[in-house]
Every structure is written in C-alpha cells, then in structure tokens.
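Q: For a teaching handout, I want to show students what a protein-ligand complex looks like in token form. Below are the inputs, and the small molecule is NAP. Please produce the holo structure.
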Amino acid sequence: MNTSVSASQTPLDAVVIGAGFAGLYALHRLREMGLNVQGFEAGSGVAGTWYWNRYPGARTDSASEVYQYWFSDALLKDWNWSERFPAQAETERYLNFVADRLDLRPMIRFNNRVTHAHWDAAANLWDVRTDQGASVRCRYLLSCLGPLSEPKVPPFEGHENFKGRFLHTSRWPKEGIDLSGKRVGVIGTGATGVQVIQTIASQVGELFVFQRTPTYAIAMRNTKLTDEDRAALRSRYTALGEWVKHSLAGFAFDMQRKAWADTTKAERRAIFEDLYADGSLVMWGGNFAEVLVDPVANEELSEFMREKMRARLTKPGVADKLIPTYGFGTRRPPLDCGYLEAFNRDNVHLIDIKAAPIERFTEAGIRTADAEYPLDIIVLATGFDAATGAINAIDIRGRDGVSLKSLWDRDITTAMGLQKHGFPNFFTSAAPLAPAAAFCNVPTCLQQQVEWITDCVAHVEQNGKEKVIEATQAFEDNWVKHHDQVTGATLIAKADSWWTGANIAGKPRRVLSYLHVGNYRKACDEVAAKAYEGFEIR
Ligand code: NAP
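A: Here is the structure, written as tokens, with NAP included.
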C-alpha cells in the first residue's frame, strides 16, 4: 500500500482521525456530501474501542438495541444482536459489518497513527502527518478518537525489572494469553477490572486483585436474544432511536418523574428494587435526580446498593474491603456478572493497597508495604487519560502555532466539546464538556456530534468565502460557565475519578462531561438554527 501521500498533492477536503463509531459515520457522511475525505487509524482494523479492548470479559454495559447506528434502515434490518449486552467480539464484528456495507475501508489508512496536525493560516489548511510518514493537507480536521483511548500506565517503580508478562487491558493480544495455572495480579477495579476479574478468576491458578478504591457492582441481567426478542426490539427501533436522543444519558430510560420528597422510604425501596432487577445502568440513569445532587438521598441509595453487594459475599472480612463507602453513582458504577462471587473463591485474593500501597515491582512480582506477591502476569486495569489524552497525544497546533495540549495542560475548556477557540476548522467528538466525554451511551452522543459537525461543514462549504469556521472566545467562555453550573451542582464534581480528571496526575480538574444528552442536543440544534451563532465563519 502507498503510504507516502505527499504534502504537495491536491489538498483533501477533510481528514478523519479514528475509525470507531464516530470516525466511520463521519467518513460516510462527508463522502455522501461529495467531499474528498481520508481516514487515518492507528489500528489494523476498524472498531476503535472494540478493536483495542479485547481483554477477557470485555463487553458493553449498554443494551445492544441502543448501541448501534440509527441512520440506516438497512443496517438496522440486517444486523442481528445475539445478546442483550454484547461482548467485544460481537461489537467489533458489528462495526466491521458497517464498514463493509458502507464500503468505508478503502477510505482509511490503517496502521497510521496521526502524530502531528498544524494549521497553516496562510493556506487555510491543516497539515496532517502520521508515524508512517504519511503527510496530507486538508481543510477540515475531525478528531474521532473516542473518550477512552489513551491508556493510563502508572509509573510503578521497578516495572522494568519484572520478569513475567506485564500488560494494560486495552493492549490485550488478539491471540489471547494462556492463563491456566498462572499466578495473575490485576491492578485496578473499575469497569474494566471488574470484567477481567470475574472472567479470569476460574481460569487462573491464583488471582491477586490489587484494589485501591472499591467499586459498586450492579448485577448485570444479560440474556441471549431469540428471533422473537429481536423482532420485538426491531418493532421499537424508531421509538428507541428518538428516545435515546432526548434522554439524560443516551439510553432508553429517563429519571424518575416523582420527586424524592413526595415518596416514602418504602416506595423508594420498591423503586430501587425494580430498577435493580433490570440489571442495567437504569439503576444510575433512571433513578431519582436527587441522588445525583443531595447527599442524604444519595446515601439512602448507596446503602441499598451496599446491602445488595453484601448479600453476594461469603468470605469473612471481604465485604468490609470490597464495598464502597463513597456515594453510589458519583463514580461510574459498572455492571458485573459474578464479580463479587469471584471473591468467594479460594484462589482469589483481595489486596487492599490503600492500607498497604504498592511500593515497587520486583523481578518476581509486586511488593506492597507489607508483603511480596510472586506473579507470572501483571494486568493493568488502570484506565485511561479520558477525553483529552488521545487528542493531546497528537501535536495539534492552531493559529499562531499554539499547542492545544499546552492550553489543556492549564485548563480544559471547549466550545460545546465541538471546537476550541484558536483552532479553525478543527472539530472534536468525545471531547470535554460534551456528554460524549462520559455521561452518555457513547454511540448516541457520537452520532449526534458527527451529524452536527458534518451539517456545520456543509454550511461552511456553502456560506464561507474562505470556508473557515472557528468558535469565538466569548461563545466558548459562556459554554464553560454553563457547563460548570450544570455539572458543579452534582456530587460527581466532588468525587475523584476519571470523570473529573482526578485519575491523571496534574490534569486540570473539571467534570469532563456535560450532563444531559437531550439538553445538549437542544443547545447544539439552536446554535445550528441560528446559522452557527457563536462561531465565526469567513
Ligand atoms: P477506571 O474506571 O479509571 O479504573 C481504573 C482503576 O485502576 C481504578 O480502580 C483505579 O483506582 C486503579 N488505578 C489507577 N491507577 C492506579 C495506581 N497507580 N495504583 C493502583 N490502582 C490504580 O478505568 P476502567 O476500569 O478502564 O474504566 C474506564 C471507563 O471505561 C469506565 O468507567 C467505563 O466508562 C468504560 N468501560 C466500560 C465498560 C463497559 O461498558 N462494560 C467496560 C470497561 C470500561 P482509583 O480509583 O483509586 O484511582
């Protein structure tokens, strides 16, 4: 394959970085508009998150009927989900099916990681380069990198001395790893750690779980879908597609209509039981709005969740370490399939590294403040530098050579998560201060953002003399203020997690995600209806 597209060639209309949910759709939409588009993808295949995260047990916490593209009846008709909550392999297959159906593969340069994107103000073009030496110029640059794609690999002292295998969950090899009889250590108990631990507990010899902060676990109710189930869901696709767009978090559920204060404790308990029985994130996104803002309401729900967790644990002493004391839903609560029960097994050991922190990796394994654990494999389920990490990994320079990373190292701000002042014709999806950064069933939000961005590009193509658009500083400042008002009122803002950037040392703190998918959509639509008010078009 020819990888040396030279900068002297005719400029492209657009470049799309990333070939996951957003990137594939953006390529399709821009091509439909008649633009000349090139995609770049670091992996050797499409699917983004579902290409990279092939660790044991990886699956969505979103029901399959809302984890798909809505724009094509043919795609909706011809794809058959096999489970309510599909596993990684199936979701990866789905995105490959879409890429093939829409014939998107020829538009994408695989195995090309974009490293450099500089705005050439004299030419009104982006100069884009990859690690393989590809170099193109384009008018519009779209970042479709996903919210969780830059792995966080903590600098554990002595990690280079460890003689066993050491890997991050998002870099799990395609061919898998033989874990049978092995002594495996897992660091991290977020949504990823939960899935790895529950899946490998019965495969490994001994499993050592190094836990710093415990997590709430909602028992997932996964089911195989029959033809009848699929037919019933398909008959609701139109309604579901509309529902998710206007919901709190991009799922087909809404918050409780009744106010907390108008219900008795017994009524609330019955509601919690119903929500819990659904075995989905409705427990978070379909609960009372008050639990997100009122510590007393939150504590009542948290106690309910703790009780559910305690009932599943049998080993003495484990519940005290494994059950969180912080408020439910202030950090992302994962669904689980046997996570808690894994700790009832004799070969699974919970190591409390808050009490005795990891001091270093040794040749043989991990040394904590009070013990040494010999290991064959160490799995880092330590998460991601969310929303900004993957964008910052590219040397992006806007007007006057200003680096985006240097701005975000000081303060993480955007214009609705769609643009950044100073970076003309650069559009972002899954970036900070939009719901796609975290508080969303991601495909819902990525589709909305791609539609907004591509409609905007069409408008600029028609109306811009120079075909250039840039968010004004005033518009960006207003959005940041509004975002801080909305999200700052929540208990989430006070909790330390990737949702607030607190998982990355030195990352400026801000709730990364806007809260309320429907309200965000409305605000975006209003901007578009007013000919992109707040954006300067020239
Ligand atoms: P995460 O939620 O950020 O969890 C990372 C875990 O690693 C935490 O337990 C964290 O502890 C621990 N950790 C990080 N650095 C550490 C260190 N230096 N020493 C010890 N422990 C350390 O990351 P994630 O589990 O990969 O999940 C990220 C997000 O991806 C999820 O919230 C979810 O949105 C998405 N996801 C979704 C699914 C799904 O849909 N089923 C599955 C996986 C991931 P602390 O909390 O103490 O920092």
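A: Two things your students might notice: The radius of gyration is 23 Å. The chain has 17 helices and 20 strands.
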